[in-house]
Design brief:
Mean pLDDT: 92
Shape: globular
Order of helices and strands: HEEEEEEEE
CATH topology: OB fold (Dihydrolipoamide Acetyltransferase, E2P)
Structural class: mainly beta
Number of strands: 8
Low-confidence stretches: 1-6
Distance between the termini: 22 Å
Strand content: 35-45%
CATH class: Mainly Beta
Number of domains: 1
Number of helices: 1
Largest sheet: 5 strands, antiparallel
Strand order of the largest sheet: 6-5-4-7-8
């Protein structure tokens, strides 16, 4: 396996708070939560807004575009991989993997777009590739 190839990923654990999120990933969509009380968008999805503690929240579609905030490449792992924090256009930051590119091409502030890693069980993992 080269550093440019994807692999199969383990299926996430799904609970009632995250079920809508994971169902959307199976359809190739990235959703975020938005609080109707304070109007802030947040990730990781949960029923209660982490900013103001309101339970008046809704699902919103994310653009799927962002920039690399921070990253590290683990080359000596059994399967080398790039781990990153990506800040989406919506303002939230996600921990993710950067895939389908040469590790030496990854750099801070580079634009990325979402792709979905197959778990083989329906839900997919949101990953990012260089845009």
């Amino acid at each position: 396996m080269t550093e440019m190839n994807r692999k199969d990923y383990p299926a996430p654990e799904i609970n009632p708070e995250t079920e809508t999120f994971w169902n959307a990933t199976a359809e190739g969509k990235l959703l975020l939560k938005r609080c109707k009380a304070c109007d802030k968008v947040y990730y990781y999805p949960r029923a209660i807004c982490p900013h103001c503690l309101s339970d008046d929240t809704e699902w919103v579609a994310a653009s799927g575009r962002g920039r690399i905030y921070s990253y590290t490449v683990l080359r000596k792992a059994p399967v080398p991989y790039a781990l990153a924090y990506v800040t989406l256009e919506e303002g939230v930051t996600m921990m993710t993997n950067i895939v389908d590119c040469a590790f030496d091409d990854i750099a801070l502030d580079k634009p990325v777009s979402v792709v979905f890693g197959d778990t083989g069980e329906g839900p997919a993992l949101p990953l990012f590739t260089l845009a």
